[in-house]
Design goal:
heterodimer, A: mainly alpha, 8 helices, B: mainly beta, Neuraminidase, 5-stranded antiparallel beta sheet, 11% helix, F-box domain-containing protein (chain B), SCF_F-box_component (chain B), F-box_dom (chain B), F-box-assoc_dom_typ1 (chain B)
Chain lengths: 148, 356
């Protein structure tokens, strides 16, 4: 049976694991669901583990993570490829874990900042260019102070 | 279909500094439209509110011109330039992402600009010369910028003692000229004051609750210009800071509230006025200055949030993190600075506030 302070979470691929309640309620979604009976959250297992690792770290730090400095631990945590970042983001978004959302958003923003050109950004994020060539040229001129 | 859903992209782009953000406008139509989208701008400003910055003019004796730098926790130190104004200027006030600058060459010419987006507006010259007879130096003593992003407008305030008629002596009338960006006009009202202001008092004007605030030279109260009712008021400082303690006191903003930072030889106290209506001050922190013993006499607080305080000395910009009790040097002048960094340091935050 569950120890009194743990929540049981079942992932999409039917793995069940226990998470300490104080950590589980970092997720706004779980917090709300805890009041409902027979509810299930659908996230795949690998990212559940990732999310809870990160949430655990936050609770340990008593949420004292200063916003402007991703601690060493978090920097390493987010050094994963785009697929993983995407999954983390989707999990964080769905489970509504703010600290994780913030961390992934910052990491992806840093990746964009480091991107040297627009075409690479499009490829990395799988975005279609919906500008006509002329429009794109006009915008580039307007932003010419940016030395694109 | 894009790899990341739109709401996720928006959270990501809201964390980009302005230059790379504008660079990404050519990626696609959605990204292009974001800086003009109300929801995105609000989110962007919410994120940048948590990232305090310090703008400093560095006068390096080995270089002919001074340079402008921006210091913050997420990007460190970066250079920026106001040369898009095509005039040599002094930064007089900073508020919610905009700067108010005065022309060095031509007295009476003021600019309001967003140094990150490089948009600017030249304020109309005040036609009636009688309105601008400030004393001394023919320049306004107090310059304030009240930038209100929620109403999409700003006001510029020039206030000071005026000379009567053609005499060069002050007649104690305290004139206040207000420029309203909505009407694009100046208006004036007069009152009488007996106050003096130090250099730091004048640099550290705070805009909260629709009013501009300046600490007075005597340190006994804060002078307030209520922009809604166009009246001058006084707000008291905590009793503990008022009575002859010999400590230095500075007025800053802290997360939308008035804050006073009191510095003695060995500690720094941070006061915040959490209840503006009842003028109630709370001491929220008492920081030991043991780590920076040698710097204490020449250190000045410039910008802060609830998480950290940025300070400037003659040659350095430091940050103190309140939750981890850690001090960090963010910037240091390489050569001899002819003017101390604190002399021309302003609190700043980036924003996409347009000013044209």
């Amino acid at each position: 049976m569950l120890s009194s302070k743990n929540s049981a979470l079942e992932s999409k691929d039917n793995e069940i694991f226990e998470v300490e309640e104080s950590i589980a309620i970092q997720s706004e979604l779980i917090k709300t669901m805890a009041t409902m009976v027979n509810s299930k959250a659908y996230v795949n297992e690998r990212n559940q583990m990732g999310c809870w690792k990160q949430a655990n770290y936050h609770v340990e730090q008593n949420n004292k993570i200063v916003d402007e400095e991703l601690s060493d631990w978090e920097s390493k945590f987010f050094e994963v490829d785009m697929d993983d970042l995407h999954e983390l983001f989707m999990a964080a978004n769905y489970l509504e874990i703010e600290s994780l959302l913030n961390g992934v958003a910052k990491r992806v923003a840093d990746i964009i900042k480091a991107c040297m050109n627009v075409e690479v950004i499009r490829q990395t994020f799988g975005i279609n260019n919906d500008f006509a060539a002329q429009q794109e040229e006009e915008i580039r001129k307007l932003n010419s102070w940016n030395h694109i | 279909m894009s790899f990341f859903p739109d709401e996720v992209i928006i959270e990501v782009l809201a964390r980009l500094p302005i230059k790379p953000l504008f660079k990404t406008r050519t990626v696609c139509k959605l990204w292009h439209g974001l800086p003009s989208d109300k929801y995105f701008v609000k989110l962007y400003n919410q994120v940048s509110d948590k990232n305090p910055m310090v703008l400093v003019e560095v006068h390096d004796s080995t270089k002919p011109n001074s340079s402008l730098i921006c210091v913050d926790n997420s990007t460190g130190v970066s250079e920026f330039s106001l040369d898009f104004l095509r005039d040599k200027v002094n930064i007089r006030a900073s508020c919610n992402g905009l700067l108010c600058c005065s022309s060095i060459a031509v007295k009476g010419v003021y600019y309001v600009c967003n140094p990150m987006t490089r948009e600017f507006k030249v304020l109309p010259k005040i036609k009636d010369q009688n309105l601008t007879r400030f004393y001394p130096d023919s320049e306004a003593t107090l310059v304030g910028l009240a930038c209100d992003p929620s109403r999409g407008k700003f006001d510029v305030v020039l206030a000071g003692y005026q000379c009567a008629g053609s005499s060069r002596r002050p007649d104690k009338t305290f004139a206040c000229l207000i420029f309203d960006s909505d009407s694009n006009k100046w208006r004036k009202f007069v009152s009488s004051q007996e106050e003096i202001f130090t250099h730091m008092n004048r640099n550290q004007v705070v805009y909260v609750n629709s009013a501009l605030h300046w600490l007075t030279g005597s340190g006994s109260y804060i002078l307030v210009l209520d922009l809604n009712f166009e009246v001058w008021r006084k707000v008291s400082v905590p009793d503990e800071t008022r009575y002859g303690t010999g400590n230095r006191v500075y007025l800053l903003e802290s997360d939308g509230c008035l804050s006073l930072i009191e510095i003695s030889d060995t500690w720094m106290k941070i006061w915040v006025m959490k209840d503006y209506e009842r003028e109630l001050w709370h001491m929220v922190d008492r920081v030991s200055l043991g780590c920076i013993k040698g710097l204490v006499h020449g250190i000045f607080p410039i910008a802060q949030t609830g998480e950290c305080v940025f300070l400037a000395t003659h040659k350095q910009v430091l940050v103190y993190h309140r939750t981890s009790w850690a001090w960090k040097e963010m910037y240091s002048v390489q050569n001899n600075a002819t003017l101390p960094l604190w002399f021309s340091a302003h609190a700043f935050r980036t924003s996409i506030f347009p000013c044209e």
